[in-house]
Known about the structure:
Elements: E1 3-7, E2 10-13, E3 20-23, E4 28-29, E5 41-46, E6 49-54, E7 61-65, E8 71-74, E9 79-81, E10 86-93, E11 96-104, E12 122-124, E13 127-129, H1 131-146, E14 151-153, H2 157-164, H3 168-184, H4 201-211, H5 220-252
Parallel strand pairs: 3-4
Antiparallel strand pairs: 1-2, 1-11, 3-5, 5-6, 6-9, 7-8, 7-10, 10-11, 11-14, 12-13
Amino acid sequence: xxxxxxxxxxxxxxxxxxxxxxxxxxxxxxxxxxxxxxxxxxxxxxxxxxxxxxxxxxxxxxxxxxxxxxxxxxxxxxxxxxxxxxxxxxxxxxxxxxxxxxxxxxxxxxxxxxxxxxxxxxxxxxxxxxxxxxxxxxxxxxxxxxxxxxxxxxxxxxxxxxxxxxxxxxxxxxxxxxxxxxxxxxxxxxxxxxxxxxxxxxxxxxxxxxxxxxxxxxxxxxxxxxxxxxxxxxxxxxxxxxxxxxxxxxxxx
Length: 253
């Protein structure tokens, strides 16, 4: 079974007799990012299957099939068989999120096409999101969705809130709600210790959302529509303020 790895438009052919190393150094030198392990992921061929293993000590990776129907969180020390025709791997080191693809010519498993029905709210499997919650996810995932297959920096909460025209308090409250909702449905990595939210929850939320196709590039038009509505509301408010100031000036005269 042949296997290839794609990263930023470059393709690597793997040899069954030779482990393939991914990290700051190795067969695939991802980046000189100091937050990235020198050796992070390894792909090995063993007993008739290709395996993806996390050989790092701190970072985790989000792994999914090409359709986003099956997803796993690959923690340090864990490994997974690569059984799909196309596997997507997303991981974050420091402020940067990376995406690579793994393609096999003889998949041992084929997933069914996942069909969604949207009525009013956005439904992904058992999780239902309001329009504002989806906008929040999009505001964080936007750089990754616009640069699929490469690298991207996840916005800070302040920058994402500004993109939406929200206060940082409103943004953080809705981020809490989204993370709580996904955590209750079994999504790992969004909580730290007991009753605590994970420090890197924004990165994990983006990885999960993109890998599972909770949000896709076509959804970005919702961000643009929201930006237009925010700008129109601001212009209307400014016009009202100018009108009130003009009326007050006339009264003074």
